[in-house]
Amino acid sequence: MTKLVVLGGGESGVGTAILGKKLGHDVFLSEFGKITETYKEALLLNDVRHEDGGHTEQEIVTADIVMKSPGIPDTAPIVTKLLAQKIPVISEIEYAFKHTKAITIGITGSNGKTTTTTLTHLLLQKGGSNVGLGGNIGYSFARQVAQENYDSYVLELSSFQLDGILEYAPHIAVITNISPDHLDRYEYKYEKYIEAKFRITMNQTKDDYLIYDADDEEIAKWFKNNNTQARLVPFSATQVLKEGAYLRNGTSIEFNINGESFAIETKDVLLEGKHNFKNVMAAVLVAKLMQVTNLEIGEVLRSFGGVEHRQEKVRTVENVQYINDSKATNVASAVCGLDAMKTRTVWIVGGVDKGNDYSELIPLVREKVTAIICLGVDNRKIIEAFTPIVDVVVEARNMAEAVVTSQKFAKDGETVLLSPCCASFDLFKNYEDRGRQFKSEVYKL
Fold it and tell me: Where does the Mur ligase C-terminal domain start and stop, copy by copy (predicted)?
C-alpha cells in the first residue's frame, strides 16, 4: 500500500488527504501549526490519521510520496530532510491531476489570476460545461477530484503550486503577466520566479494551448530563449494581432481564434480598466477554445463586475468613494489599482514586504495620491520611498485607525483606496481578512 504523507492542514492538504483515502492509500497528515476545527472535522470524517503542533519525523520520512502544501517553503527543515532522502515531494495539483481524466485549464500570472479564473469558469458554465473551479481559489482541486465528477476544471495556479509539479499539463494554459512577486521565496532572484511561472507549459504538447500577454516584457524575453510545444495564442492592449485578441482604439476587443473573427465593444463589458480588458481577452480566448458561443460570452461580460477584494467599490461617504483592493499584494497589482483611480486618492498601503521595489509606483503616486496611510508592522521602506513626493505620510496601528485617519485626510470628491502592495500576514490572517476588516470599518463611518 502506498504511504502518502501530507504536509499542511489547510484546504490543499486536507483535500489531498481525502483523495488519498478514497484511493486506498495509507494517509498521514502533519501540520506544524494548528489545524482549524472545520478541517479537523473533515479529517475525522474521512478517517485520516493526523497531527498538529509539530512534525513527527519518523512517521514522515517513511513516506512513499509527500504532498507539500504551497505555503511551506522548500527550505523548511522537514522538507530538506525528505529531499535529501530522495522521497518525492509534489504539489496537490500534481497529485490530483494523476487521478482524474478531466481536462484542466491552468491560469497563472503575477496579477489578474483570480479575476481571469472566475470569469473563465462563469463563461464555461454559461456554455453548458460541467466544470469545476479550484486550485488557489475555492475548494482544492484534490478535494473536488475525490468528491465531484466534473469533466473539466478551471484552476488558479500560484508559482508555489507550479514548483511542485512533475508531469502536470493543462490542456489550456494562461499566463496573465509576470512582474516581481514572492521574491523572498525565490532567494530574491527574479529569474527563479519567472521559471516557476513557465512550469505551467513545460509538459504541454502540440495539441495544447498557451494563452499569454504579448505586451509583457518578461514573457517576450522567455520566448527568445525557450520553447514550448503548445500552440501559442497571444493577447495585447498595444498591438494588432493576426491570431489571438487585441484592444482596438480602447473601444473594442478584437478576437481572431480558430478561423473565427469577432469583436466585443468595451462599453458592453462591465469590468473597467485596461488590465481588466486583458483579463477578458484571456478568459474569452479560453471560452472560444472550449466552444462557448459569442451570445453566451456577451451575456456574461455584461453582468460580471469582478471579484471581492479586487478594486471593489465598498461605499461612498460624504462624497468620498472607498475602494477595497486588498488582493493587490505586490507592486504591479498596486500599479493597476492606482492607475484605475479617476480622482485624487488617499492610499492605504503596507504589510509584509516581499522584496518590493516601489520606484515603479512613484509617477502614479506623484500624479494621484494626496495622503498615504501606512498599515504594517514595519513601514520603513514605504516611508522612505514616498515621503519626498507626498506631503502627508502617516502610520496606523490597525485597520480601524487607518480608515478613520483616511476619512480625516480625504477631501470632497476624492477616493480612499486600500491597495496594500504587500502581503497581509503581519496584522491579518490573509488578504481576505484584511479586505473584510476594511469594509467593516468603512461601514462604521
Answer: 309-421
Nearest one of 255, 213, 260 to 237, comparing CA atoms? 213
In CATH terms, the fold of domain 94-303 is UDP-N-acetylmuramoyl-L-alanine:D-glutamate ligase (3.40.1190)
Q: Above 90 in pLDDT, residue 355?
A: no
Rounded to two decimals, what is the model's pTM?
Answer: 0.81
> What pairs with residue 4 in β-bridges?
27, 65
Per-residue pLDDT, averaged over 82-104, amounts to 96
Topology, domain 3-90? Rossmann fold (3.40.50)
CA distances from 138 to 12, 113, 319 (A): 10, 13, 35
User: Structural domain boundaries of the chain?
Assistant: 3-90, 94-303, 312-442
Pairing, β 260-265 against β 252-257: antiparallel
pLDDT score of 80: 94
Cα R_g (the chain), whole angstroms = 22
- Mean pLDDT (the chain, rounded): 94
| 3-state DSSP helix/strand/coil % of the chain, to nearest 5 | 40, 25, 40
